[in-house]
Amino acid sequence: MDDPAGAPDPRSPRERYLATWRAHAERLDQKAREHPLRYLFLEVTRRCNLACAYCGSSCTGDGPRQELDAGEWVAVVDQVAQDFDPRTVMVAVTGGEPLLKPDILRVFEALRDRGFAYGMVTNGLLLDAAWARALVRVGMGSVSVSLDGPPEVNDAQRGPGAFEKASRAIRLLQEAGFQGKLEALSTLTRPAIPHLDRMRGLLAGMRVPLWRVAPVMPIGRARERPDLVPGPAEVRALLEWVLRARQDPRLPVPEHSEEGFLGWRFEGRVRPYLAQCRAGVEVAGVMADGRIGACPELPPAFHQGDIRRERLRDVWEQRFQVFRDRSWTRKGPCATCDHWAWCRGGALHLYPAPGGDFARCLYLQAKEAETLPPDPHPKSA
To answer: Is the peptide bond before 209 cis (omega within 30 degrees of 0)?
Structure first.
């Protein structure tokens, strides 16, 4: 990049690109040292009114017997507001299905009253007109609605009628005057990949401006469903599609998830940031039963404390070293990878425990796809 005075940068494009990545690695180091809490998950319940075939959390209709009740969650909100600046922490309320939690509006109201920006991830099945009005009334700033493909693809894995009910939830929010961030969240199975253009058209018809996409991870129930987990060819096809789709002005503009380093062709182009996993560095989470961790998809081996007995602030400051020093990930394919300095072992939810084996590397899968023979029977988008 030329400087403001107009002097040309003498470095080659590759030298400039590598300088960008060196600066990125330095920022990762600085964040690990300073670890400012910027994002907090509240997994208010593990109960869900769906049982998706690929659910990474393996949620069902039953939750742990020792789930925090609404009053305890309000106390958690109060504690975090006392120990951190609510103006600098985004709170994501998740589950399970958050709207199944009794008295969940008390938690939403507490987040609003303490000054947190906050949002919710929902499957939309319970989000009727009354709920839509209530969410507007309590000042919810963002709603992410799960839609994982066109109706027949979505409902085959999520349950009959799930697409229609999620679409209705989006419409009811709009009719209620919701002014916050409204996005579709798509966890893409192998059968969904060929239908990305069609899915984009459906979301455009719903006037959804934002769309976050991620290939199903081989964790939770998806470990037992390899037929649903995208392989190298599907991963490459998804990345190439997002790359193309982000180059035209139509809404929604898809954005790929945070998962890991993606390679030179895709980094900085399929999402508006470079490779990162912020778990435990800028992101914390309180699980439904009170355990303190980073994000809800991380397995129990990563949990660091219990909110019923400890303050999140103390656990955050004293026990999150496993997230901030990731040298333990330098094994297997990562041991000799030239990109480890800016990837740091990829997304931590793909490890069964600290020191465990990495379940998937999207960069290696996309690279492997370069050498695969062409599909003799390509599916139309």
So the answer is: no
